[in-house]
């Protein structure tokens, strides 16, 4: 979950090798402005339709890439709950996420550093284009903060933390992150890890060192897959 379909699909072989079915859920910037109720209903409907021909209980293992993946899973989860679908979530996997409780308004790391890291990832060389793109990102950041502040609702980062870290504290979690990530800095992920630990969550973590945002699999594919396989063997086997 999270990012373009092409970017997300490269992770599916990890789960296919374990015998799991997968659903790829792309996300875009627009989802930062949409409510969970108006996001990914088609994905939830597709999952419900697949259950019609199966007598097995639905077991979901969300593998969430960045904050967009967290937002996607929460939206799908809400659709399934409201539709009365019975399902179990025995484990969660976070890649380069989530932010800690501070949300858009307060931020451990420099917002400018994080937004500049996004521009860097686009490999734009022209100073003029970099300035234009950086300005657009800053306006977008402010517009997301304003969108949720105006309706008095938690912003997406706060919603991710409240639901996936606090509410779902009983679900075991694997955090895959790095000190080299300047988009979702390690301080943010480690803030979520500390909060989950304080809540008694069973968790594991792997710090991939210098790898950049959502590039940990490309940086160290064997380590990445081994961490997932080991984690799921401990927490999911009884459901399969």
From TrEMBL:
This is Aste57867_22082 protein. It comes from the Eukaryota. The keyword Phosphoprotein does not apply. It is a single-pass membrane protein. It is found in: Nucleus outer membrane. InterPro entries: AB_hydrolase_fold, DUF829_TMEM53. One of its GO terms (cellular component) is nuclear outer membrane. Its main location: nucleus.
């Amino acid at each position: 979950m999270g990012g373009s379909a092409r970017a997300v699909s490269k992770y599916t072989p990890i789960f296919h090798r374990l015998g799991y079915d997968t659903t790829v859920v792309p996300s875009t910037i627009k989802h930062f402005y949409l409510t969970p109720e108006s996001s990914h209903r088609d994905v939830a409907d597709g999952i419900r339709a697949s259950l019609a021909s199966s007598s097995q209980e639905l077991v979901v293992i969300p593998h969430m890439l960045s904050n967009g993946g967290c937002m996607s899973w929460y939206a799908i989860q809400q659709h399934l709950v409201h539709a009365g679908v019975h399902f179990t979530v025995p484990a969660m996997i976070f890649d380069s996420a989530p932010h800690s409780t501070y949300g858009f308004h307060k931020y451990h790391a420099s917002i400018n550093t994080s937004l500049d890291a996004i521009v860097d990832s686009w490999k734009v060389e022209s100073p003029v284009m970099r300035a234009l793109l950086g300005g657009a990102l800053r306006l977008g950041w402010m517009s997301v903060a304003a969108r949720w502040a105006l309706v008095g609702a938690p912003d997406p980062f706060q919603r991710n933390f409240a639901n996936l870290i606090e509410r779902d504290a009983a679900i075991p979690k694997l955090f895959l992150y790095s000190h080299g990530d300047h988009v979702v800095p390690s301080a943010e992920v480690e803030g979520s890890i500390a909060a989950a630990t304080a809540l008694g969550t069973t968790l594991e973590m792997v710090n991939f060192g210098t790898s950049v945002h959502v590039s940990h699999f490309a940086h160290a594919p064997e380590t990445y897959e081994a961490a997932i396989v080991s984690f799921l063997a401990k927490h999911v086997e009884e459901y399969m």
